[in-house]
Amino acid sequence: MDDWEYFTDEELYCPCCDGGEMKAAFMVRLVELRKALDFPFPISSGFRCKQHNANIGGVKNSYHLLGRAVDITLTHDQAYQVVAKAKEFGFFGVGVSQKGQNRFVHLDNRTQSAVTFFSY
Asked: Rounded to whole angstroms, how far apart are CA atoms 35 and 58?
């Protein structure tokens, strides 16, 4: 278990079993992005076990299963700032949900040269 500045184990571990660990390379990037933007990143989903991922309807090949993705509860300007800086900090999977009550930005560090954007 690593201690990551700005983030708690409760935010990062699977909520159904407290299992899993985020990959260090991913977390280093996330901490650096958080420092650069200087506002809180409340994590609504970090690592997921297979069972939890299935229960919430996550995709079978989710980067959450690998400890290489988070969903951050953000709205409006802060969400835009995270999306605008994502590639600079090595996040090439960027998802956005900004409608209704479930507003968040998904970040993952998939390995590719171009950013994949998707919306929920």
From this structure: 29
pTM for the complete prediction?
0.94
pLDDT in tens, 3-53: 899 999 999 999 999 889 999 999 999 999 999 999 999 999 999 999 999
Q: The sheet that has 104-108: what strands, in order across it?
A: 43-45, 69-72, 104-108, 93-97, 116-119
What CATH number corresponds to the domain at position 71?
Answer: 3.30.1380.10
The SS3 assignment for 56 reads coil
DSSP strand E in 1-120: where? 43-45, 69-72, 93-97, 104-108, 116-119
Digit-coded pLDDT (tens) for 85-115:
999 999 999 999 999 888 999 999 999 888 9
Domain extent at residue 115 = 11-119
